[in-house]
Write a structure and sequence with these properties.
The complex is a heterotetramer.
Chain A (H helix, E strand, L loop, with lengths): L6 H9 L12 H6 L4 H24 L9 H23 L1 H7 L10 H11 L4 H31 L1 E2 L2 E2 L3 H5 L8 H18 L4
Antiparallel strand pairs in A: 1-2
Helix pairs in contact in A: 1-7, 3-4, 3-6, 3-7, 4-5, 4-6, 6-7
Chain C lengths: L4 H46 L5 E6 L3 E5 L5 E11 L4 E9 L4 E6 L19 H4 L26 H20 L4
Antiparallel strand pairs in C: 1-2, 2-3, 3-4, 4-5
Chain D lengths: L2 H11 L10 H7 L3 H33 L5 H23 L1 H7 L3 H5 L2 H12 L4 H31 L9 H22 L3
Classes of the chains: A mainly alpha, B alpha+beta, C alpha+beta, D mainly alpha.
Chain lengths: 202, 334, 181, 193
């Protein structure tokens, strides 16, 4: 193992250096699909974050008990439990957000970040480290989702968190391209190019 | 507490878990096929997410590729740097036993030294260019310089210098060998990291044929072979081949080579100096190939700093051990 | 112990049990709220079906009458519910009436919502071909043609058609009793 | 919803990769060469059909009658993982040739969002078993079309002179954006949304 990173570095690395979406390039499905607006993006990040933090904690806490041969199914069960919890809690208390995120909330269970971090990090590290890693990755994930959501909402409908920002002349005929799938692909391509240019994650 | 619901739910999922557990147990017992333990170690290091982001079919595929040396250790996306480090360690252990490697360019014919046979306008990729009559470069053995190695290097360790030749940054290069594999001209080679001196020319032509196409090409004169104190060099198809085991990096060949085809990666070479213990026996004068020592027999000898290349051949022959090498060795981009 | 075969299967079953227990609790807690929301959504959809232009509905009489409001909140019509005895059971009707007193649209509860009329006959009352006959009509015209009104009944299902027409006219009468805003 | 509309809807209009964004992880990983993409698509088709049937039966015959609908996520992903493991073992022993062609992609599929996505959509759209099968076929075909089409583009991108910052993923994303733009046109074509 590389020299044990200090605790703060585990947390901060998740945000920029090892940003799950733009640097490690995983967890793309929700990033593109649920970022029609900043609110939805953050909602998705919160849901995924809850599952990631929860599963990282449980996996790390139980890592000595889990036999190696069946560790993947056990991780899957733990993760799907947290996913179902957020799924039903959101259906009950945040129906409007749930309607927007739709099938992507249960799809968090196959989100590569969560299973990946559980296996690569939580299963091998202590509880506190895993928590920090999860929080770091969630913040990183939330950052990208917020940026994507805000940009797409701003360009696609001229509003920010629902409140109009751009002049109404623009809002009358905004660039709807951004709200459609091609816009999402295009935007994340640009963001990745910026990340490459800036040399993060070298 | 809605007991019937709880019981139904617990029984339902647990029975599924049981069936799955038994199935996995059967699979685990029946399928323990012996796999090269390095691949098992690599596979254990991988997160097992099988997300395919590395471009290989799942973690097993990627582990096999890494162990077979076909894949660099840092392509696992979910695992991030931790897994890359661990894979590097696993692979590194293999390589470390044979000394960590670094890639170097065995060609010094840049734009200044070697011309072009024709104007090449096409995809800026060495492989494409190499297909066209061996590439636009005057010397068909030499590096085309269109940066395919830059593209494939997973660690971004190679950049094209202003002389049109790739520069390998030893700090970033992990010796994964991707560039060596991909270079159509095979003018990139892996040498042990600690090796300082190597021949930077791949041309099998002789004398005039080389001179016509490149100012710094090796003409196969064999001077280096004659001057090598440890006999580490031998001529094969007009090119001196170096036996890394014997070579002591003294650097004599670098200075003896008439066409400067050797590269000395040391940024600085020490200088010999003779202290008063010298009894003037003159052995060092005979040993020195560069006539950098002068002095009367029986008198204390002196080293001519400008001539001395710091090869250190005089040190062992001096019985009173009166000669020291002063100054440090250093590395610079090959 | 960690690698023993028994524990391999046992750990899986144990995790499933714990997960199942946790999920059943979460489900028990959140189910009432979800059912409530589903009901509210169903009602909203029914109302919207007869008053597409409305942005929201203000419940005047619970389960009986709603005021249809546009985005700015001012009233654009009313929606009423009524049910008359049909051939095989009650025929629940939802009527959307504009401010001008004319019918905007009529909707009859579908079979899945408990309508018991005979399929192929009475059930045809739920189809737009029959219901569109009500659109634009005022209170006096809401009678079957044979009863002196302007609604042509479904051949072979006069009882159901009359039930629908009566339901609509009852709703319109109640609408007239209400003081106009 | 008649069968043709379901198939075209899944195949072109709401292409699972380019319009619904489901299953993107392997999409960018495996699509570097056409041959791997074809292998992957065959494996996806094979498993997606099986998963659709198994999940539909499980849901309607076990979960709904017993009122355990909330176990949907856990059961589906476990069943798919077990299914893939079982299929891999079965192929390894009885159909060596088939295994070498698509077997290696099987582990890749357990965590593929597309498979799980189809099982959930079959339930959310309240499809019958036949409709679910058609939807799975359409989606698998859409997956294959998108990934093979994209692999061809990416192979050409490898040798094109691209500015360093855009090389690799960014140009792949922008390429995907253009392909997805083309797919956007289909929705008007068939009038399905």
């Amino acid at each position: 193992m590389s020299q044990p990173e200090s605790r703060i570095r585990i947390l901060t690395s998740g945000i920029i250096k090892e940003n799950p979406t733009l640097v490690l390039m995983i967890g793309l499905c929700p990033t593109l699909a649920t970022t029609m607006s900043a609110r939805d993006g953050l909602g998705m990040a919160a849901a995924a974050g809850f599952v990631l933090i929860g599963s990282n904690l449980v996996v790390s806490a139980a890592r000595r008990l889990v036999p190696d041969a069946v560790r993947i199914p056990i991780f899957i069960i733990i993760i799907s439990t947290f996913v179902t919890i957020i799924d039903y809690v959101m259906q009950a208390y945040q129906p409007s957000l749930y309607k927007v995120l739709g099938v992507f909330v249960p799809l968090i269970v196959v989100n590569c970040i969560i299973l990946g971090r559980a296996e690569a990090f939580a299963y091998r590290r202590g509880v506190l480290d895993s928590l920090l890693d999860a929080v770091g990755k969630t913040l990183g994930f939330a950052l990208v989702l917020f940026v994507m959501g805000a940009l797409r909402e701003l360009i696609g409908s001229g509003t920010f968190f629902g409140r109009p920002v751009l002049p109404s002349t623009y809002r009358a005929a905004p660039m709807l391209f951004m709200l459609f799938p091609p816009g999402a692909f295009f935007l994340i391509g640009i963001l990745k190019a910026l990340v490459n240019k800036s040399g993060i994650g070298k | 507490m809605d007991w019937p619901l709880v019981i139904k739910s617990v029984i339902g999922l647990s029975s599924l878990g049981l069936i799955l557990g038994i199935m996995l147990l059967v699979a685990w017992l029946k399928l323990t096929v012996k796999v090269d333990e390095r691949e098992q170690a690599a596979r254990a290091a991988l997160p097992g997410v099988n997300c395919g982001a590395c471009g290989y079919p799942g973690c097993d595929g990627y582990a096999a590729a890494v162990v077979a040396g076909k894949a660099p250790p840092n392509r696992c996306a979910p695992g991030g740097p931790q897994v890359a480090a661990r894979l590097g360690q696993i692979m590194g252990q293999e390589v470390a036993s044979s000394d960590p490697q670094v890639a170097v360019l065995i060609c010094r014919g840049g734009k200044a030294e070697s011309g072009q046979r024709f104007q090449y306008r096409g995809a800026t990729d060495c492989r494409q260019a190499a297909l066209l009559l061996g590439g636009p470069k005057a010397c068909i053995y030499g590096c085309v310089g269109l940066g395919h190695c830059v593209l494939v290097c997973p660690f971004k360790a190679i950049t094209i210098g202003d002389n049109g030749l790739p520069l390998v940054d030893p700090k970033k290069c992990t010796g994964c060998g991707k560039c060596v594999q991909e270079c159509p001209k095979s003018v990139l080679k892996l040498i042990p990291r600690t090796k300082l001196v190597f021949l930077a020319c791949a041309s099998h032509d002789k004398g005039k044929a080389v001179k016509d196409v490149c100012k710094v090409g090796c003409i196969g004169c064999g001077l280096c072979v004659k001057n090598c104190p440890t006999g580490a060099l031998r001529l094969e198809a007009n090119l001196p081949v170096m036996d890394f085991g014997k070579c002591i990096d003294c650097g004599i060949c670098v200075h003896k080579c008439p066409t400067k085809s050797f590269v000395d990666r040391a940024s600085g070479r020490p200088k010999a100096s003779i202290n008063p213990r010298c009894n003037g026996c003159g052995e060092c004068i005979k040993a020195c190939r560069f006539k950098a020592i002068e002095g009367e027999p029986g008198q204390q000898h002196r080293v001519l700093a400008d001539k001395c290349v710091g090869c250190g051949q005089c040190v062992p022959v001096c019985k009173p051990r009166a000669i020291d090498l002063i100054g440090a060795l250093g590395h610079r981009a090959a | 112990m960690k690698e023993s075969r028994v524990w391999m299967v046992a750990s899986l079953v144990l995790t499933c049990a714990v997960a199942a227990f946790a999920l059943s609790q979460v489900y028990a807690v959140t189910r009432p709220k979800i059912d409530y929301q589903r009901k509210v959504k169903a009602v909203q959809e029914a109302l919207a079906a007869v008053m597409p232009a409305a942005a929201s509905f203000h419940e005047q009489e619970p389960g009986e009458m709603w005021f249809a409001l546009d985005a700015q909140g001012n009233r654009i019509g009313t929606v009423l519910k009524a049910a008359k005895q049909g051939y095989a059971g009650p025929v629940p009707v939802t009527v959307g009436i504009g401010l001008d007193g004319r019918i905007v649209a009529v909707r009859v509860a579908s079979a899945s919502e408990g309508l018991k009329e005979t399929p192929g006959l009475g059930l045809k009352a739920t189809e737009p071909s029959f219901l569109s006959g009500f659109v634009g009509k005022t209170a006096p015209e809401v009678r079957l043609t044979r009863d002196g009104g302007a609604i042509d009944a479904i051949t072979g299902a006069t009882i159901t058609s009359r039930a629908v027409a009566d339901g609509v006219s009852e709703a319109m009468e109640r609408h007239l009793e209400e003081p106009a805003p | 919803m008649n069968p043709a509309k379901i198939f075209l809807g899944a195949f072109l209009v709401n292409n699972i990769l380019l319009m619904r964004f489901i299953g993107l992880c392997p999409f960018f990983g495996v699509s570097s060469s056409v041959s791997t993409s074809v292998g992957m698509s065959a494996a996806v088709l094979f498993v997606m059909l099986l998963a659709a049937w198994v999940s539909w039966l499980l849901y309607h015959l076990l979960l709904v009658p017993f009122g355990l609908v909330f176990l949907r996520t856990a059961v589906f992903i476990l069943v798919i993982a077990a299914l893939v493991q079982f299929v891999e073992m079965f192929l390894k022993r009885y159909a060596r040739a088939l295994y070498s062609a698509l077997g290696i992609y099987l582990p890749l599929i357990t965590t593929n969002c597309a498979i799980l996505g189809v099982t959930f959509l079959n339930i959310d759209y309240k499809f019958s078993l036949l409709q679910a099968t058609i939807f799975a076929l359409g989606t698998a075909a859409g997956f294959a079309l998108a990934i093979v089409l994209f692999a061809a583009i990416r192979e050409r991108l490898d040798d094109a002179p691209i500015t360093p910052a855009l090389r690799g993923y960014p140009i792949a994303f922008i390429g995907a954006s253009l392909v997805s733009l083309a797919f956007l046109g289909f929705s008007a074509l068939f009038g399905i949304n």
